[in-house]
Design brief:
The chain is α+β, with helices and mostly antiparallel strands. It folds into four domains: 427 residues, no CATH class; 98 residues, Alpha-Beta Plaits (2-Layer Sandwich); 209 residues, Helix Hairpins; 88 residues, Multidrug efflux transporter AcrB pore domain like (Alpha-Beta Plaits, 2-Layer Sandwich). Helices cover 72% and strands 6% of the residues. It contains 26 helices and ten strands. The strands form three sheets. A four-stranded antiparallel beta sheet has the order 2-3-1-4, sandwiched between helices. A four-stranded antiparallel beta sheet has the order 7-8-6-9, with helices on both faces. Strands 5-10 form a two-stranded parallel sheet. α6 packs across α18 and α10 runs antiparallel to α13. It is rod-shaped and about 220 Å long. The model has no long low-confidence stretch (mean pLDDT 85).
Length: 950
């Protein structure tokens, strides 16, 4: 391998621009593929075959509506006053606009939903009184029907009496009419006689008046003519007779007038009688009409009473059904009593947005459109935030913290190398490798489902390892140049020696990462594979691109002072004497170093005893993020459990009839509510084939709480009793359920993973170091590194120590797969440092140095570059502690602490101390094994001697 890498270094140096151009072209090609064929990333972490995932798969196939992606919008009043009608209308308007966006299937208005919930609760609370009132109304109605029947019977009696009355009336009227006709006839006869008498009286009276006039005229003439009284006297007597006749006629006339008056009165009576008869006839006709109408009304009343009786019977049936269903309704009411979508104080409301596809398949642009439309409605008195499901996106691979970490690495490189060119080369080389691996990951995302953590993990590893690997080769090259070696020869030799170490170190890391596929967890295996790819590119870049760039720089890789010293050395053909090697603390005080290291790391590892595993939720997001604000507002207004709702599916052996669905839901809800720490169990409908009932179960605490994990366990145990009693089964999914399944899956596969990684790495180290003790000590030291690292991670991210420093505002369980992935990565990196330090020790021991001197020699030979490389890794990984991605932050912290502990405590302190205590035995290897093992010459010692001879 050393010879091959030597020739590869020579080629890269001679064809420097060809190699550089090839890598630049590769980067351009990968960028082009990423831009044209790239897909998207998901936040979902599915683990096939686990109970929670099987439930999700069942819902997607049998209950499509239940598998629709959902997101939530939180509307919160910041001025302390409840929502006004105008604000409610504004919210309704924006929700209507969101409902019309592409990909959105349905939007649920919280105020409408809360009104329905409260109305249902009020009706349920009033149900006993409503039922009693309903029964009273039915009883009253039956009494009214009975009274109505009595009234109808009385009415028919009245009708019959009325009919008899009209018959008698007609008889009386006819008799009166006959009497009146006789009276009229008598009046007409009397009138005729009176009229005749009046005529005779008029004639007599006319004659008497005429005689009176004649007599008075004659008497007057005679008185004028002085006629004697005797002559006048007869006239006077006749006049007296005439006047007496007139008086008689006047008396007769008075008699006739009185008779006429009597006749007129009789006529009045006749006319009045006729009028009375006419009125009586009208009354009788009217009475007969009223009787006919009464009969019609009675018949209509009989029909109405029959209808009323039928309605009362139907109402009684409904009431009996309501009475029978009341216990089921009360059970469901009790199960949903604590569920709200508008807070009790009226300050916060939750709207639900349902997509046409599962949330993991909803394109980022659709989620972005929804979140922007909603959050754009924030005002001075109302804030609008959305759940993390609507916000998840891969904004950038590098944030401010990561850039600061790279900047620190550059500073360290400048301090170590003394030139800006030298400091920039390892970073530039690492960025080329990271760019290619990251863009390939983007391109593959079109055909492979990647979590959003995958490319960031690749960038983190590629940067740290890429800088270190390039530094190892560059440092060896600079050392050789300062010794006076030719540039081209130095490049080839550095590539054949340090490059060989880089190859073996990279292989160790690749084995550890690729072995993550053995866990059987798809997304974790893919993360390991893509991480291994980034390491592979870092190695290839280090042994090809780095020599090519070094060749273009020539001696400018050295500072002016170093170049001057080199020129003087070459000119006088001098060789720098080997510096004296002073014993390090670990070899001077091995017992103290060993015990102190174990004690200190043991103390750091104490928090590991309480470590709990989980998946990140909104509480892990930055405080100023919408995801965290949504989580916090939801918890404050509705309780912790709303953020960790569980989905429970109850499946019966046969379709559930509509008449039985309420009883089935109530039975399951009662069983769910009987589980400790369950706050609510909300029925969410039935599947199309009516064999599955869906429930949303709200625990009393959040998704990562111990009590919620117990709820999941109890829910799964509930399935046995439900199956035994009803034949139905109960399944559960949700964050807490997935947490348990991930932990169980990792627990099952971790021994195989660790066994494979440790086994392959031990074989590799035995091959490299040709020792039994050194690989065992290295592995034991690594275990201390892991324990201390996980203890520190637990103290910071679960206990909340130094929370303000690391932006851990809500301590929570540790990321479920973090221990596994940390073990894999740290093992590979730890073996890097072990390889660089211990290979120099072994080379010195083989060439005759004592065990203690060999250890000191190896440490002095590689200490500076290992320390610089470790600081660089800590800086790069530490930058990711402040990443915008929740899952990356504990990874960055764990890797930074792990590298810090392993490099400075384990490799530079504990391992040298223990090797010192073992002495020559540390390098013992059975002879039979020594004979069959090939000499891999990791440090390229043979190559170096061969080059020196020529």
């Amino acid at each position: 391998m050393s010879e091959l890498l030597f020739r590869l270094g020579q080629f890269s140096a001679r064809r420097a621009w060809l190699v550089i151009g090839a890598w630049i072209a590769a980067l351009a090609l990968s960028v082009g593929l990423a831009l044209t064929a790239g897909g998207s990333f998901t936040s979902a972490m599915t683990i096939d075959g686990t109970p929670a995932q099987r439930t999700i798969d069942t819902l997607q196939t049998s209950f499509p509506d239940a598998s629709r992606g959902t997101g939530q919008a939180i509307f919160h009043k910041t001025d302390g006053t409840p929502f006004t009608e105008a604000e409610k209308q504004a919210i309704a308007d924006v929700l209507s606009r969101v409902a019309r966006l592409t990909g959105v299937d349905e939007v649920i208005n919280p105020f409408d939903t809360q009104a329905i919930l409260e109305d249902s609760a009020a009706k349920l609370a009033d149900a006993p009184r409503t039922i009693a009132d309903g029964q009273a109304k039915i009883d009253d109605g039956r009494a009214q029907v009975a009274d109505g029947l009595k009234d109808i019977e009385a009415g028919w009696a009245q009708i019959e009496s009325g009919r008899a009355g009209t018959v008698a009336g007609w008889a009386e009227l006819n008799a009166a009419e006959a009497d009146l006709a006789d009276g009229r006839a008598e009046l007409e006869a009397s009138q005729a006689e009176l009229t005749a008498g009046m005529q005779q009286l008029d004639a007599a009276e006319a004659e008497l008046i005429a005689s009176k006039a004649q007599l008075e005229g004659a008497i007057a003439q005679m008185e004028l003519g002085s006629v004697s009284e005797d002559i006048i006297a007869p006239y006077r007597d006749n006049l007296a007779l005439v006047l007496a006749g007139l008086e008689q006629t006047a008396a007769q006339r008075a008699q006739l007038d009185a008779g006429q008056a009597q006749l007129d009165a009789g006529w009045q009576r006749v006319l009045a009688g006729e009028a009375e008869i006419a009125a009586g006839r009208t009354q009788l006709v009217s009475a007969e009409s009223e009787l006919d109408a009464g009969e019609a009304e009675l018949r209509a009343a009989e029909i109405e009473l029959a209808d009323a009786q039928a309605e009362l019977d139907a109402a009684q049936d409904e009431l009996d059904a309501a009475i029978a269903e009341l216990p089921f309704g009360q059970s469901l009411g009790a199960a949903t009593a604590e569920f709200r979508v508008v807070s009790a104080d009226g300050l916060t409301a939750i709207a639900t947005i349902m997509f046409e596809q599962p949330i993991t398949e909803v394109p980022t642009e659709q989620r972005t459109a929804v979140s922007e439309a909603l959050m754009g409605e924030s005002t001075n008195s109302m804030t609008v935030t959305v759940s993390q499901d609507l916000l998840h996106s891969l904004d950038s691979l590098l944030g401010v913290g990561e850039i600061v970490g790279v900047a620190i690495a550059i500073i360290v490189l400048f301090i170590m190398l003394g030139t800006l060119v030298g400091a920039g080369l390892p970073v530039f080389a690492a960025l080329i490798g990271v760019g290619i691996s990251a863009t390939i990951t983007f391109a593959l995302s079109a055909v492979v489902e990647f979590t959003s953590t995958t490319p960031i993990l690749g960038v983190m590893l590629g940067l740290a390892v890429g800088i270190d690997y390039a530094l190892f080769i560059l440092n060896r090259h600079r050392r050789q140049l300062k010794d006076g070696m030719d540039v081209a020869q130095s490049i080839a030799l550095a590539n054949g020696t340090s490059g060989n170490s880089v190859m073996f170190a990279g292989l160790t890391v690749i084995i550890a990462l690729a072995a993550l596929n053995l866990t059987g967890i798809g997304f974790l295996g893919i993360m390991g594979t893509m991480g291994a790819m980034s390491i592979a590119f870092a190695v290839l870049i280090a042994v090809t691109f780095t020599p090519a760039v070094i060749a273009t720089l020539g001696l400018r890789i050295l500072s002016r002072k170093e170049r001057a010293a080199r020129d003087a050395l070459v000119e006088h053909h001098q060789h720098l004497p080997a510096p004296s090697v002073a014993p390090v603390f670990a070899t001077r005080h091995p017992w103290l170093a060993s015990l102190a290291t174990v004690v200190v790391l043991g103390i750091v590892a104490i928090p590991l005893n309480s470590m709990r595993l989980g998946l990140p939720d909104g509480s892990s997001e930055p405080v100023d993020s919408a995801g965290y604000q949504t989580y916090a507002l939801t918890e404050e207004a509705f309780g912790e459990g709303v953020n960790g709702a569980l989905i429970v599916v109850a499946t019966d052996t046969a379709p559930i009839a509509e008449d039985d669905e309420l009883e089935f839901q109530a039975d399951i809800a009662d069983r769910l509510m009987n589980i400790d720490n369950v706050a609510a169990a909300i029925p969410a409908g039935f599947s199309d084939d009516r064999t599955m009932a869906l429930f949303r179960v709200i625990p009393t605490e959040g998704p990562n709480a111990l009590s919620t994990a117990t709820v999941v366990t109890d829910l799964r145990a509930l399935s046995d009793s439900v199956r035994a009693e009803t034949g139905a089964t109960v399944e559960v999914t949700g964050i807490a359920a997935i947490n348990i399944d991930v932990s169980n899956k990792l627990g099952d596969t971790l021994p195989l993973y660790l066994g494979t990684v440790l086994g392959l790495s031990l074989l590799l180290m035995i091959l490299v170091f040709r020792s039994i003790a050194v690989p065992i000590i290295a592995s034991a030291g690594f275990l201390l590194t892991v324990l201390a690292t996980l203890g520190a991670v637990t103290a910071v991210f679960q206990w909340g120590w130094f929370g303000q420093l690391f932006d851990v505002h809500d301590p929570a369980p540790i990321l479920s797969f973090l221990p596994t992935i940390l073990i894999g990565i740290l093992f590979g990196l730890a073996m890097d440092y072990q390889l660089f330090l211990a290979s120099g020790m072994r080379e010195a021991f083989v060439h005759g140095k004592s065990a203690r001197d060999a250890i000191n020699h190896g440490i002095h030979l590689s200490r500076s570059v290992v320390i610089a490389a470790a600081i660089i890794m800590v800086s790069v990984f530490g930058g990711f502690v402040f990443s915008h991605t929740t899952m990356i932050r504990p990874m960055g912290f764990g890797l930074a602490i792990g590298v810090l502990v392993d490099a400075f405590v384990i490799r530079l302190l504990l391992v040298p101390a223990v090797l010192t205590l073992l002495g020559d035995k540390a390098w013992w290897l059975p002879k039979w094994l020594d004979r069959i093992l090939p000499d891999v010459d990791v440090e390229g010692a043979k190559l170096e001697r061969s080059v020196a001879r020529h």
